[in-house]
Each structure stands twice: as C-alpha cells, then as structure tokens.
Amino acid sequence: xxxxxxxxxxxxxxxxxxxxxxxxxxxxxxxxxxxxxxxxxxxxxxxxxxxxxxxxxxxxxxxxxxxxxxxxxxxxxxxxxxxxxxxxxxxxxxxxxxxxxxxxxxxxxxxxxxxxxxxxxxxxxxxxxxxxxxxxxxxxxxxxxxxxxxxxxxxxxxxxxxxxxxxxxxxxxxxxxxxxxxxxxxxxxxxxxxxxxxxxxxxxxxxxxxxxxxxxxxxxxxxxxxxxxxxxxxxxxxxxxxxxxxxxxxxxxxxxxxxxxxxxxxxxxxxxxxxxxxxxxxxxxxxxxxxxxxxxxxxxxxxxxxxxxxxxxxxxxxxxxxxxxxxxxxxxxxxxxxxxxxxxxxxxxxxxxxxxxxxxxxxxxxxxxxxxxxxxxx
Length: 378
Prior knowledge:
The chain is α+β, with helices and mostly antiparallel strands.
C-alpha cells in the first residue's frame, strides 16, 4: 500500500532517505545461480552519483554498493537480494533554516498534508537521492537480461535541454558517444551549447529542464499485456515515477497525433528468419501493448530543478507568507544524472516483463507464426 515497490516477477522495494544512514533495495525474483558482477553494479552507480562533474550537485557521495543478502560466492541464491549504499556526505543542517517553509514545487507541502510531517532534510523519500537504489537494481536487471536475452541493450541520452535540440543517429549510437559528453548528449555541437546553457542559468541562481530519449535494442517480441499492463503503460509508470519527470512519450508520441493513419502505420515485412518486422518504427516497438521485436523507443520530459538560488515567495507551516532563500546542494539541471536513472527504469520494466513471459509461456521470445485456427459457426 505504501508504494515503495515496483514490478511483479522481478520486484524491487527501495528504502532509505536522502539524509538518513543509508539507502538500498530488496530485489525479489532474481533468478538463482546468476553470476553477479558487482563491478558492473558499481559502475552504474558511479554514472549516477553526485560530485562526478562540475555541472552537478557538489554533494560528495562515493555510493559504494554493499550486498546484505541473496549472494554467495558471487552467485545469486534465489532469495531476496539486498543491496545497500551508505550516505557518507549527508548534511541536514543545510536545510535547518528553511525547515518550517514550504519550498515551491517541492514535496514539502504534499508530504506534510499526507503524513502529518515534512521531511525537510533534503526531501526524504521524495529526493532524487532515492534513485541510487533504482540504479543498483537496474544494473542487476541488466545482467539478468544479458543472461536470458543476449544482445539486448538500453541506451538513454539527453535530446533537448533548455531549448537546445540534438541531432542523433539512433542506428549508430553508442554508450561511448553518450558518455563522452558532460551532459550525456551524443551530438557534440548541441552538447557544447547545453553545457553553456547550464552554466548560464546556474550563474544567475536558476535551473533548466529538458527531454531524455531512450532506445532498447534487441527486445524480443511478446513482452507486455494487451489490457492494463501494456508495455508502454508499464514504461510510463516506471519513468514518470522518477523525480522531476513530467511527461512521457512512446514511439512517435505526441508528434504522431498530428499524422494520418496512412502516414503513421508501420507496414510488416518478412524478417528473413520466418518471422516479421516492420519497415518503420513509429509505434516505438510496441503494438497492442506488446513488443513486436523492433527497438522500444520513447522519451521522458524533466522539469527544471525546483531549488533555485534566488529569493522566492512561499508560506511557512503556520500559514504565514515568508521569503524563502534556498539552502543545500542541488543540480542546476537534473538531466545528465537522470540518463542512468531512465536506463535503469527501462531495464527493470523489460526484466520484469521477460520473466513474466517466461513464467506464462515457458519462452523468453516470440512464439512461431502459424496459420490461424479454422472458424466454424456455433
């Protein structure tokens, strides 16, 4: 009921607060006897952690992952796999002066009216710091997918930031291209402009938002359900659960709404292996809520970071108007660090859906095509 868990066959439950002792995740449903590469989990956390770039929060967190349960001799046991990351640079004192003030566009007020108290120390569970647990779980999901579905790869990148758009060839895109950019934008010209834009808004105490695109290559056909648990619905829930996420698109998204059916449809053609593929991919790899074997694509819009370093008008817990002057260490733009968060949530959805398909059908891929059953009137 508390909403701290996600997934069914591959289910994660995160715990911990921004300025508490630690954060972590319990993963239930991880297949047994999986050789778990903890270095790969650590590498994923290193991509997300603060203090790793001059463009992000100055909070210094090593984010070293510890295994509490579910692993022996580097292989999963099949029981709950618990990963822990201790907070090393928590400093709730930075928020003490504004503890009784509701920060504009933060969770302070909504949390207070729901739970009867406000976690003023950096936002508590509502903080983006919680995503360290998701990224750790996503790195485990990535290894499960690699074992069951070799060749599946999820990439995310900054496509728009502060009104600047990137030109990206998704067919040739690589993680190396993405990671070569401070803002994780694989277009070098746009990347330089985005860096300048972040520095410009930060200099005047402001923040900026943008859009992250994702592409999952090698996803087998058959993931997702035709009604409530459509693959894009699961992706939407996962990605909109990220802090600061305000919009989601699958495939052509809102632009597709401007097309006619004849312009938007994806024609089927033989795939050369007895199956089918589509000659275009405006559906984003999902039709009828189920993956069709084409790359699964989409986008997530992130608002500007709510903490700005210029005075704002708000009220305090007594309902009195006050002027708020922000404290703490915050990103001027969440997008560079949100890229591994987006990848993690896509990986978690795909892993959960793949294990659900295997449980339901015994397969981790599409069923062979065959002629339809004959019809006879009743």
